[in-house]
Design a protein that fits this description.
mainly alpha
Length: about 80
């Protein structure tokens, strides 16, 4: 139930809007729903928060963002993200 999952992730982010893991999984859910541009926003946020919180690169979010960019025909952006991942 992807729509239900997205609603649950929205609720979780209302409680803690700085949880990188929740942004990642909401992005994955949006991507699975075909909401690719919205998914990119969540992956961007997950990448940013992970680096700020723990000072490391969020490889999973870079990989997910890269594969999402493929869906949007942004091949240069995909190559960049997937190279980092």
């Amino acid at each position: 139930n992807l729509d239900g999952a997205k609603i649950d992730f929205d609720k979780a982010l209302q409680l803690d809007g700085n949880d990188a893991t929740t942004y990642y999984w909401r992005g994955r859910t949006k991507s699975d729903l075909g909401e690719f541009k919205l998914a990119l926003i969540d992956f961007d946020k997950a990448i940013d928060l992970t680096f700020k919180e723990i000072g490391i690169i969020d490889y999973m979010s870079y990989c997910a963002r890269g594969t999402t960019k493929i869906e949007l025909n942004d091949y240069n952006g995909a190559i960049s993200d997937l190279t980092i991942a």
